[in-house]
Design brief:
The structure holds 2 protein chains of 2 kinds. By secondary structure, chain A is mainly alpha-helical. Chain A contains 13 helices and no strands. In chain A, about 35% of the residues are buried. The two termini of chain B are about 35 Å apart. Chain B has helices spanning about 10-20, 30-40, 40-55, 60, 95-130, 130-145, 150-160, 165-190, 195-200, 205-215, 220-245, 265, 270-300. By secondary structure, chain B is mainly alpha-helical. The chains are: A mainly alpha, B mainly alpha.
Chain lengths: ~325, ~300
């Protein structure tokens, strides 16, 4: 177990570095002077005095002075000290714009993953146990449909339906979970459910095929042959083995969920990190984009790390390898 | 093989061999017949795909109205015989806009999948063929690449390069690329171990020749399968970008953009505004998914009959 953990951690560090280089290079393919010119109020391509004091000062503010490797080192060093740079749109530190939004996005994400896992595994097990009955067809059909649907369209339709039929008003005011849990959940539960529902489709498929596979195993037949109750066979022999590979999917789901979450924050007008990211992209506010992409990539890598460690802990075959 | 019967002469055997029909590979027609008969969902998918491609090609002939034509007397009209899918808050015919929107979806879908899986296939081929260090490095890079959520990667690329048609296509292609690498790499590794590849190498075929003549043609099936199944993902990503207002900034309507802005406000009163564009996204994505699944079943005999 310890060697596995160390190996896995050692993999995390170079990957994180690689990702940071990747992001840095990607966002520096834009000519830096384009941005500077834009900031000085000129159009790109317009002549400006590159030697003026004001220009140099702005470059310094934007962290654009020095060679590219120097800029990278400075950016990364600052990043790990919590200094994410200065937003170009309102000249405030990026971190100050992000910080109040992180909890909302985190809570939304956790809720969505939990809902996706519960719906997906329960649905998958039912679908497998009732293989080739109408329940199975219904569950598989709806999961296939869900996967083909744009998540934001599903959300728009549900909101329109709720408004049209029950005169429901989307709650506008967001309260922090610790201040007013009821109000907080009334805002976040529906978007989390919709993101989770869509992500549950893949988990359902995976769970179903995994359970079906285990149901054919010799030890399941033995358990049934010695007269165990069906529920006991399912609970103790089938599920324990079948749900193991599904946990690996959770890491993958986190990646998939992020895309859905960015859009759902826009649909429900939730002021999370995803919404700030969209604003940053629309305004071409590169420090904001760069910081958030790096942040998201780190969250994804960490989530995968946690899932792998959890998997090793759950699966003795890996633990003792 | 049975031992040759003593009563038949060698000449007779030769005669029989000549007379016997050489084993023929089943023709294209046979394959198609098999497909239609055994793959119901796949046939449905293929029909949807064909209908969508034709709609995109013949949009000007099919659409009864110009997509930007505003009919102020018929604002927010419910679906009727003049406006099959109703009109939006500017009185524009939704059916005509969807028909024209198919163009963007098909064009962006096709080109981004072609570029993404194409480049991915070349990298996967090289990575799987040479193995060793090259492969290890490529696989690390693919892992890193895959740690960016699709939409976030596409949005970042659009943010850097701007939201023009070629950039949006490249941005979506970038999200597909790593999957192309993975699929073609594993296919290459399997084919590399085949006897005919060994045979080719042992008679002195160069690396390039082995790759081009012996391995690449055999990766066509997985290539087509991944193309078909990624097509739907590409359409969904494009719709997402358009919905966020960061898709293609051209006057041509796209399905995702029809759902953005004020559409949501009018939706409770006039649900057809958002219902139809989303429905067409869903049905198209499903069509490509069904088609891709059926292709996979056909090409992969292990999956046949499941």
């Amino acid at each position: 177990m310890r060697t596995y953990l160390i190996k896995r951690l050692l993999l995390f560090i170079p990957t994180a570095f690689g990702v940071s280089i990747f992001i840095f290079v990607m966002l520096h393919t834009i000519p830096g002077d384009y941005a500077t010119a834009l900031l000085l109020g000129g159009e790109p391509g317009e002549a400006y005095d590159a030697s003026s004091e004001q220009f140099q000062k702005i470059r310094e503010q934007l962290g654009l002075q020095g060679s590219l490797p120097q800029q990278y080192a400075r950016w990364l060093g600052n990043f790990f000290q919590g200094d994410f740079g200065i937003s170009w749109t309102n000249r405030k530190p990026v971190w100050d714009r992000m910080a109040p939004r992180i909890f909302l996005s985190f809570e939304l994400g956790v809720l969505a993953v939990a809902i996706a896992m519960i719906l997906g595994t329960v649905g998958g097990v039912i679908s497998a146990v009732r293989q080739d009955t109408w329940v199975d067809y219904l569950l598989r059909g709806s999961s296939m449909t869900l996967q083909a649907m744009p998540g934001f369209w599903l959300a728009l339709m549900v909101i329109a339906g709720l408004v049209a039929i029950w005169g429901w008003k989307p709650p506008i005011e967001y309260r922090h979970l610790w201040d007013d849990p009821v109000r907080n959940l009334s805002v976040l539960l529906l978007p989390a459910f919709l993101v989770g529902l869509r992500s549950s489709a893949e988990i359902l498929r995976m769970t179903r095929s995994s359970v079906l596979e285990v149901l054919r195993e010799d030890y399941v037949r033995t358990a049934e042959a010695k007269g165990l109750y069906r529920s006991k066979v399912l609970g103790q022999h089938v599920l324990r083995n079948a749900l193991l590979p599904v946990t690996t999917l959770a890491g993958f789901e986190v990646v998939f969920l992020m895309s859905g979450q960015v859009i759902i924050e826009q649909v429900f007008n939730l002021h999370g990190v995803g919404k700030l990211f969209i604003q940053g992209v629309a305004a071409r506010d590169y420090p904001v984009v760069q910081a958030i992409v790096m942040f998201i990539a780190l969250v994804v890598l960490l989530a995968n790390l946690v899932v792998d460690v959890m998997y090793a802990w759950l699966d003795p075959r890996i633990r003792y390898e | 093989m049975t031992t040759p019967n003593e009563s038949t002469s060698a000449d007779e055997i030769r005669q029989n061999l000549i007379a016997a029909e050489p084993p023929r590979r089943p023709g294209m027609g046979k394959y198609m017949l098999y497909y239609f008969r055994h793959k119901l969902l796949g046939t449905v998918g293929l029909v949807i795909v064909i209908v969508m491609v034709l709609t995109a090609l013949l949009a000007d002939l099919i659409a009864p109205f110009a997509y930007q034509q505003q009919n102020y007397e018929d604002v927010l009209a419910a679906p009727n015989f003049t406006y099959l899918f109703g009109t939006d808050n500017f009185g524009r015919d939704i059916f005509s806009r969807i028909v024209h929107g198919a163009r963007i979806s098909m064009l962006v879908g096709f080109l981004s999948v072609l570029v993404g899986t194409g480049i991915g296939a070349v990298i996967g081929l090289i990575s799987g063929f040479f193995m060793g260090k090259v492969d290890a490095i490529v696989q690390r890079l693919v892992d890193m690449w895959m740690s960016f959520p699709d939409l976030i990667l596409a949005l970042t690329i659009v943010a850097v390069f701007g939201n023009t048609l070629p950039n949006v296509i490249l941005a979506i292609a970038a999200t597909i690329l790593p999957r192309g690498v993975r699929v073609i790499r594993s296919a290459t590794i399997a084919i590399r171990e085949m006897d005919y590849t060994m045979a080719a190498r042992s008679i002195g075929a160069s690396d390039i020749r082995t790759m081009m003549r012996h391995i690449m043609p055999n990766t066509v099936a997985p290539f087509l399968i991944i193309m078909s199944s990624m097509f739907g993902t590409a359409i969904l990503t494009e719709a997402g970008l358009s919905y966020l207002g960061l898709g293609i900034s051209e006057p041509t309507p796209s399905w995702g953009r029809m759902l953005t802005g004020q559409a949501a406000q009018y939706a409770p009163r006039a649900p057809w505004i958002i219902a139809f564009p989303g429905f067409f996204i869903t049905i198209t994505v499903m069509g490509f998914a069904f088609f891709g699944d059926a292709l996979r079943d056909l090409f992969d005999p292990r999956m046949r009959g499941r």
